[in-house]
Amino acid sequence: MDDFRSAMQAAVARMDPSSAAVSAYHLGWSAADGTPLRAPAGKGIRPTLALLSAQAAGAPAAAGIPAAVAVELVHNFSLLHDDVMDRDTERRHRPTVWTLWGVPSAILTGDAMLTVAAEVLLDSGSTHALEALRLLMTTTRELIHGQVEDLQFESRESVDLQQCQQMADRKTGALLAASAVLGCVLVGGDPAITRALDSYGRALGVAFQLIDDLLGIWGDPAVTGKPVLSDLRARKRSLPVTYALSQGEAAGRQLAAWLRSPATDDEDALRRIAELIEATGARSWAAGQAAWGIRQAEQALADSTIPPQIQAEFMKVARFVADREY
Amino acid sequence: MDDFRSAMQAAVARMDPSSAAVSAYHLGWSAADGTPLRAPAGKGIRPTLALLSAQAAGAPAAAGIPAAVAVELVHNFSLLHDDVMDRDTERRHRPTVWTLWGVPSAILTGDAMLTVAAEVLLDSGSTHALEALRLLMTTTRELIHGQVEDLQFESRESVDLQQCQQMADRKTGALLAASAVLGCVLVGGDPAITRALDSYGRALGVAFQLIDDLLGIWGDPAVTGKPVLSDLRARKRSLPVTYALSQGEAAGRQLAAWLRSPATDDEDALRRIAELIEATGARSWAAGQAAWGIRQAEQALADSTIPPQIQAEFMKVARFVADREY
Fold first, then answer.
1. A69 contacts A11 by C-beta, under 8 angstroms
2. Does A312 contact chain B (CB < 8 Å)?
């Protein structure tokens, strides 16, 4: 963990001083004025997966550090740019970078993160660096594709459930799967293990997105850190909303009419919409799909030759994802 | 040339359909509605340098194609993002991407270009792909650093000439130098040739920036394609302006006062400022420095073992840069 932290710091230190300072803020290492913050507790789901991924292939966790740093940087590159595009003003209870330093700083710091992510893999010293970087770049293109679709869907009258799921796979699933695979690729692991980790990661990604969407509607603000009913407030066409619309019954039509109406912050009205969505079966559908994803993830591991104690660690991550309360 | 064009098209075809369409517009291949345009005449200075760079190492030009595509994509990645940051509404007589499709499209298409640039080198099949990509990523970080400084300088009371030159080296010189080197690195050329090409490229970059700055003040709009006195209109602290300010005489002080005054589009007033700058010796200083850069570039080649006919091609590029009228 400490090794990961110092590798992240070394990666950020490659940047120009301004991008490095903005990164330190965005990553939660410092306040907006540069004052160091007490180190946050966890290292995040993607780096955790990347370190386990190296161990799944029989290598020490340390061998996965460049992969862990690279996925964390690509994830944060996409957050910085997405916050600009989505005009999001808060992330993890703090003002977003573009609101503090302007759009140019957010764009440039994101660019620097993507660049340094590639450099960290190139400088890993692994004979499989090229292969690992190819996977990371393909994944980054998937992420970009997902964000392109997400923005397109906002202005589209109807989006079917399959399109919505594909978009979520690209925006969320692809990088989670890549995180679970990248450490293994970097240490030159057995292709059969790579395939098992990819299946695990994709299934986990599906569950992750569904649970995020459930939290966005029915999550407890004290737990999620987001405002109550936040996704409805933002009229996000999340998976449960798209499912409800696809049911085409009276409730679906009422929901469609609401999506076309002017936005409101009236909490009672939003609560009624949440009830409407639940009445279509969308909440239990999403919860069921998420649980299915977690079981699929577990099965992918069980069918592999990954050491049992590493499988158990991967399942801890899966259960952490599944048990976020909603 | 046709091989380069089709390699560019194949690279863009890796992107999601929306980013590919936006790229095709930005690169001048299609109109905003997607109608194909007659192919533009040249292939641009950076790809030309990258192809020559492979030849300098004794390889066929074709071996430099992945390098040529990669530098062209990184260049255009930076243009797309810079246009957003600088709020530039026109480029090469056409509306910029963000004015047509919005800031998110410009950010995402730029991101896709950077990603694909890396992929093209990774998939080049060269045993030196890793080394080439490391150079490209270091250069990209320099580009980002240069843009960070450029934006910082806008809000700074005074910038000294050395800082201004360093910024220009990063923003313009670094990628020109990398273009001149990358083909050679990709084909595993002799390090002595790599060093000669780097010296050539850095010197060319200095000349390129100075001449661009001269054109921005004294260029003929019919030739430059930019509005008359465009850099003064935008109050750009270009190298000649910074030189003039550094002279600290009456003219320098008058210029500083003008930079602090509210912006004006009055052409007569801008012409008087141009005369003021010229009176400090800034115009002949810049022209002299540019000519010196071209001579340095030529010397770097002459001192190397690069085949004479390839040296001659490199000097054609240098003279093309030098002879843009101003």
1. yes
2. no
User: Quick check: B13 contacting A, CB < 8 Å?
Assistant: no
Residues of A within 8 A of B116 (CB-CB) are 137, 141
- Report the C-alpha gap between B169 and B176 in whole angstroms: 9
What tokens appear for B253 in the block?
Answer: 């002080």
User: Pick from A47, A46, A55: which is nearest to A187 by CA?
Assistant: A55
**B146/chain A closest Cα distance in angstroms:** 9
Residues on chain B touching A148 (C-beta within 8 angstroms): 16, 18-19, 108
By the CB < 8 Å criterion, does A242 face chain B?
no
Q: Give CA–CA dist A256/A92, Å, rounded.
A: 30
**Interface ipTM:** 0.94
For tokens 């080439």, name the residue: B132
Going residue by residue through chain A, which has 326 residues, state the pLDDT in tens, using 9 for 90 and above. 579 999 999 999 999 999 999 999 999 999 999 999 986 656 799 999 999 999 999 999 999 999 999 999 999 999 999 999 989 898 888 999 999 999 999 999 999 999 999 999 999 999 999 999 999 999 999 999 999 999 998 877 778 999 999 999 999 999 999 999 999 999 999 999 999 999 999 999 999 999 999 999 998 877 776 777 888 888 888 999 999 998 877 888 888 888 888 777 788 989 999 999 999 999 999 999 999 999 999 999 999 999 999 999 999 999 998 887 55
Matching CATH topology for B1-189 and B190-326? yes
Homologous superfamily (CATH) for A190-326: Farnesyl Diphosphate Synthase (1.10.600.10)
Domain B1-189 in CATH 1.10.600.10? The answer is: yes
Residue among B253, B11, B81 at smallest CA distance from A110: B81
| Distant-in-sequence, close-in-space partners of B298: CB < 8 Å, separation ≥ 6 | B315, B318
Residue B202 token pair: 């850095």
Alpha carbons B108 and B172: distance in angstroms, whole number: 23
Hey, which residues 180-209 in chain A have their CB within 8 Å of chain B?
Answer: none
Only one residue has tokens 């104690």, namely A309
Q: Where are the domains of chain A?
A: 1-158+174-187, 190-326
User: How buried is A223 (Cβ within 10 angstroms: 0-12 exposed, 13-18 middle, 19+ buried)?
Assistant: exposed
- Chain-chain contact of A16 with B145 (C-beta, under 8 angstroms): yes
Which superfamily, per CATH, for A1-158+174-187? Farnesyl Diphosphate Synthase (1.10.600.10)
At which residue do the structure tokens 């801890």 appear? A316
Q: Do A114 and B111 touch (CB under 8 A)?
A: yes
